[in-house]
Design goal:
By secondary structure, the chain is of the alpha+beta class. It has helices at about 5-10, 30-35, 40-45, 50-60, 90-100, 130-140, 150-155, and strands at about 10, 20, 60-65, 70, 80-85, 85-90, 110, 125. It has a domain at about 60-155: Homing Intron 3 (I-Ppo) Encoded Endonuclease, Chain A. It is built from seven helices and eight strands, in the order αββαααββββαββαα. It has a two-stranded antiparallel sheet. The longest helix has 13 residues, at about 130-140. The protein is elongated and about 60 Å long. The structure holds zinc ion (2 copies). One zinc ion binds near residues 113 and 118.
Amino acid sequence: MTDRGLTRCSKVCAACDAPLSKRKGESEGNWQRRKTCGLECGYALLRYTPERRAASFWAKVNKTDSCWLWTAYRNWAGYGLFKFGPGLVNVHRISWQYRHGEIPEGMHVLHKCDVRNCVNPDHLFLGTHQDNMNDKGLKGRQAGRQLTPSATARAASPIAAPS
Ligand SMILES: [Zn+2]
Ligand SMILES: [Zn+2]
């Protein structure tokens, strides 16, 4: 009886979730102990326990009275990025997840405040791709016009907040 097929798919990398397989010539002991697909993921795992990762994330945030501004790396469009596991993730998505947990499949995290590098969870809400497009269109047409924060919140919130 052979268990090669089973062995091949029995583990995933603890840092990036890639399926792990025993390398050619790798000792059985090493294979049993190995948790990651390679050096980079091994180091990532050492450096980034969830606590350390959260601490290094929030250390890059400048909390003003309204928006919480991401001060580290931003992409060409002005959205903040943070290394999360093997890739770069939009920081407003990470912030939403710290508050609420996993983002449902296919959903977008949108800004009520229109500040692309803002990670204040109170300024973020979930929407579909279509909501995202509508939101952009709406805000594009209204460019130059400032809504008060509460008006923006009412416009963006699916539940009207009693005030
Ligand atoms: Zn990996
Ligand atoms: Zn904001």
